[in-house]
Structure formats: structure tokens, C-alpha cells
Design a protein that fits this description.
alpha/beta; globular
């Protein structure tokens, strides 16, 4: 643990204490990497909203242009007709109401859940199980839909769901540290663009307050968020 602490401190000292552009931050994060595994690169965006008010909730999805570097295991809960469509689209697990019982029994070998509207009465029983993991199907994120093939394809392609937490911060992954710098930069701009587009009309004042980027084990790098128009490439 002491050795790991020294490596982190060395990495932290190698990061200039000033705001960076996304294009500067990505190669810097890759340069100061010290762990042996392929870390996830994440962004934390602090927003000028009060999530306690429903009209200031920020939530949405974005399909990252270069994915996340790891294909998610997708479960589709649907009727017989849609089950076939889901399998053809590449869903890893497919079933009907019996799947709900499996999950209630402790099975959780999946990373994303898609359900058809007619199954939501049964799927509603899973709120306490799927909710804490952020996996509860929701129409707003495209995971309650009749177009299960599209939903499966988007998730497999690198679809990321984001939601502001109680502190007004959005945390989301943008890829692996082994990605090319250009691909991570493109993914970062895609995420930021989607968050900006999701700005609630009730939000007043400066919307994007601060942005930090880091790898799983590495130090945070402050991103220059003073001008959102420059930060986000439309």
C-alpha cells in the first residue's frame, strides 16, 4: 500500500495544477499511468443544478463513437415475439417473467437490462434489486422499448447512461486508457455534448461548473470548462 501511495503521489506531482483542454488532458492521463491493468478513463462533471427539484434533474444517454472497450452483457425481458428479435440482435440473455424470478433469486450476471412495455408490471418488482445498480429499465434511457434490437445494438456499441447524483455531479466512463488519444478525446466530447444538450430549462446561471478527468487509479486532471462552446464540439 505504501508503494502504491508513492506511485500515486508521483503521478499527481506530474500533473500541472491548472485547467487543461480535453486534448491536453487525455495524453497527460495516459503518460502518468502507473498501474499494470487497462484502467477505465472517467469524467466527473459538476453541474449548476439542484437535483432535489424534479425540473432540474439531468439524465440521458450517449452512444460513444469509439465505445467503451468492453462489450456489455445485455439481458432482454420481453414476450415471445420480441425475444427472437433480441436474440438476433445479439442479446446475451433473453426471457420473460421467469427471468424476473431468477433475478429475485439472486442471479445478476448481466450489465444492462432492456424490457418491453408490456413486461414492466413484472419488472417493477425488481426496483430494489436493479435500482441500486442503475440497471432499472426506463423509457427515458431507451431501455423500455418495443424496438429491442435497436436498444441492444446501442448498448453493445458503447451506449452510456448518465445521471446527476445528489451532489449535482455526473460521473461517467469514456473508454479505456489503452485507447488512442484521439478516440478518448472524441468520446469525451460526445459525453460533454450530450450533457450540455440535457440542460434543464429550470437550470439558472452557469451550467457546467467544473470538469475533471482521471483513470481508475490515477490523479484527477482539471478540464477548462470556462467556455462550454469551446469545450463541446457540436
Amino acid at each position: 500500500m505504501r508503494s502504491r501511495g508513492k506511485k500515486y503521489q508521483a503521478a499527481r506531482e506530474a500533473v500541472p495544477v491548472r485547467p487543461h483542454s480535453v486534448e491536453e488532458a487525455v495524453p497527460l492521463i495516459q503518460k502518468v499511468k502507473y498501474s499494470k491493468f487497462d484502467e477505465t478513463v472517467e469524467m466527473s462533471i459538476r453541474l449548476g443544478v439542484d437535483p432535489k427539484h424534479a425540473d432540474q434533474m439531468v439524465r440521458g444517454t450517449v452512444v460513444l463513437p469509439h465505445g467503451l472497450g468492453k462489450s456489455k452483457s445485455v439481458l432482454v425481458i420481453a414476450n415471445a415475439d420480441k425475444q427472437r428479435e433480441a436474440r438476433e440482435a445479439g442479446a446475451d440473455e433473453v426471457g420473460g417473467e421467469e427471468v424476473v424470478d431468477r433475478i429475485l433469486g439472486g442471479w445478476q450476471a448481466f450489465d444492462a437490462v432492456v424490457a418491453t412495455p408490456d413486461m414492466m408490471r413484472a419488472v417493477g418488482k425488481l426496483g430494489k434489486v436493479l435500482g441500486p445498480r442503475g440497471l432499472m429499465p426506463n423509457p427515458k434511457t431507451g431501455t423500455v422499448t418495443l424496438d429491442v434490437a435497436k436498444a441492444v445494438n446501442e448498448i453493445k456499441a458503447g451506449k452510456v447512461e448518465f445521471r446527476v447524483d445528489k451532489a449535482g455531479v455526473v460521473h461517467a466512463p469514456i473508454g479505456r486508457i489503452s485507447f488512442s488519444s484521439d478516440n478518448l478525446v472524441a468520446n469525451a466530447h460526445a459525453l460533454l455534448g450530450s450533457i450540455v444538450k440535457a440542460k434543464p430549462s429550470a437550470a439558472k446561471g452557469r451550467y457546467v461548473r467544473s470538469v475533471t478527468m482521471s483513470s481508475t487509479m490515477g490523479p484527477g486532471v482539471l478540464i477548462d470548462s470556462s467556455n462550454v462552446d469551446d469545450l463541446v464540439k457540436h
